[in-house]
Amino acid sequence: MPGEREVDDTARRDGGAVLPLRRPPIRQSTTVRSDLVHVFTTFVRTIGVWWPLQPMSIGGDRARTVTIDEYTGGRVYETWDDGTIAEWGRLAVWEPPNRFVMSWLNTPAPTEVELAFTALGPALTRVSVEHRGWEHLTEDQLREDCSAPGGYSTGAYSDGWAAALAASVDVIESTLP
Fold first, then answer.
1. Is 13 helix (H, G, I), strand (E, B) or coil?
2. Which of 43, 81, 104, 137 is a Cys-bridge partner for 141, taking CB atoms 3.0 to 4.6 Å apart?
């Protein structure tokens, strides 16, 4: 009906309060023509090669590489030309070769990113990203620019994850054993 706001089931169970729907996570995926172990290992260990630092970094032109510490609690960070470290997040879950989950500190309030790797066959792997936790951000924060204008509200994060995954495929497939 006009003027009526949508509510989720949780809001109805909580005494009928009208709450806005949760902000959906960003989900992107791609397929890579390689086996699961190679895809996971190459994705993680060569992120500094394939991640599009320009424009997707904290340091801009100063950013030189990205590194993932391969253990629960490990950092995900970029290193600048002067050796400065800019942390992107910490690994909350580390389950090679199937997935890792990390905090994401490159948003106005922390969010969470999960990368999942699924074997679709002996030489075909799906890489999926889910970037969630947007409900922790205000409307103004959702509109803040990321690597592209407009942030979450305009789909810039979704486009960014699609570009990053596409870049990873090129490198992973070029390093096939």
1. helix
2. 137
Residue 17's pLDDT band (cuts 50, 70, 90): low
Q: Which residues pair with 131 in a beta bridge?
A: 26, 113
Following DSSP, what letter does each residue of 25-89 receive, concatenated? PEEEEEEESS-HHHHHHHHHHTHHHHS-TTTSSSSGGGEEEEEE-SSTT-EEEEEETTS-EEEEE
Q: Report the predicted TM-score, pTM, of the whole model to 2 decimal places.
A: 0.86
Identify the burial level of 86 via C-beta atoms within 10 angstroms of its C-beta, where 0-12 means exposed, 13-18 middle and 19 or more buried. middle
The 10s digit of each residue's pLDDT in 108-130 is: 999 999 999 999 999 999 999 99
Q: CB 84: neighbour CB atoms within 10 A? A: 14
Lowest mean pLDDT among 7-16, 40-49, 66-75: 7-16
